[in-house]
Recover the amino acids of this structure.
């Protein structure tokens, strides 16, 4: 009988390399919001994948980047703090981008952590002729194993899964087989709303927003009532989110409602409000209230 393997896998990399898309592809279900805007993921989010011979617990982390505010610093801290928690790091690399100083920094960071690394060259659908050896030489990571995949089309995912299993230790099943995530319904619903803000707004506005779920209640008519607050940093951003005659807020609400109804498998009434909380991304107390802060960890 084949030995059962289990372990924790950190998904890391620079912004917009497809980390959340990969999580959703492996889960076979939409758990993570996806946007073409960098720094979409703000927290360490856990996804659980159970097969007949293994259980892999994934941490999707914010993209490592040069922070411009306290929120950015906290996002980088989340990514760094993931290292002591995992058995294996998947370093996701965008195959369509040339290697740069940022990739060299990630190489040094991961080497210093002394953790097992599997490099995943993503977006094979856009760059089928990508040569990994050139990238590895440029960043000084020739000794690490690698695979090429497309998280969008699913190409290479079976090979990736087998590679990950082989690099994990023999261990127990930590979670029930049917469990996909340990994040709450409230968190996932708030992220679906934030995803639509990312999709429907531009420039600084989407990065200046946060979503707080104030109430979820089952109503007698069978609908789930959800009241959510969209936080922005300036009144001008509030006007943009609301739109002329409330037009943009209605679009955000309509698109979000469809995703939440699929997730909950129930009809919902989504009550959206917009509130200005000046410079909230630089307020440690607000970041702590929103769950975006944590203390440094060490092995």
């Amino acid at each position: 009988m084949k030995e059962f393997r289990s372990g924790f896998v950190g998904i890391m990399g620079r912004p917009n390399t497809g980390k959340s898309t990969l999580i959703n592809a492996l889960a076979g279900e939409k758990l993570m919001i996806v946007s073409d805007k960098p720094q979409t993921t703000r927290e360490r989010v856990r996804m659980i994948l159970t097969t007949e011979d293994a259980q892999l617990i994934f941490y999707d982390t914010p993209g490592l980047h040069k922070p411009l505010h306290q929120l950015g610093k906290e996002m980088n801290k989340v990514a760094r703090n993931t290292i002591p928690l995992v058995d294996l790091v998947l370093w996701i690399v965008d195959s369509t981008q040339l290697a740069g100083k940022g990739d060299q920094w990630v190489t040094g960071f991961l080497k210093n952590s002394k953790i097992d690394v599997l490099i995943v060259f993503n977006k094979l659908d856009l760059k089928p002729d990508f040569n990994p050896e050139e990238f590895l030489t440029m960043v000084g990571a020739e000794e690490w194993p690698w695979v090429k995949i497309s998280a969008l089309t699913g190409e290479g995912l079976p090979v990736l899964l087998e590679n990950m299993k082989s690099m994990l230790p023999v261990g127990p099943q930590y979670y029930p087989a049917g469990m996909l995530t340990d994040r709450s319904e409230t968190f996932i619903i708030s992220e679906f709303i934030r995803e639509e803000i990312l999709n429907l707004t531009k420039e600084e506005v989407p990065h200046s927003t946060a979503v707080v779920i104030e109430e979820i209640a089952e109503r007698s008519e069978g609908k789930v009532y959800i009241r959510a607050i969209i936080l922005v940093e300036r009144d001008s951003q509030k006007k943009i989110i609301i739109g002329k005659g409330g037009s943009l807020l209605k679009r955000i609400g309509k698109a979000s409602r469809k995703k939440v109804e699929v997730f909950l498998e129930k009809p919902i009434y989504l009550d959206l409000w917009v509130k200005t909380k000046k410079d909230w991304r630089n307020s440690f107390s607000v970041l702590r209230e929103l769950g975006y802060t944590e203390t440094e960890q060490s092995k």
In short: The chain has nine helices and nine strands.
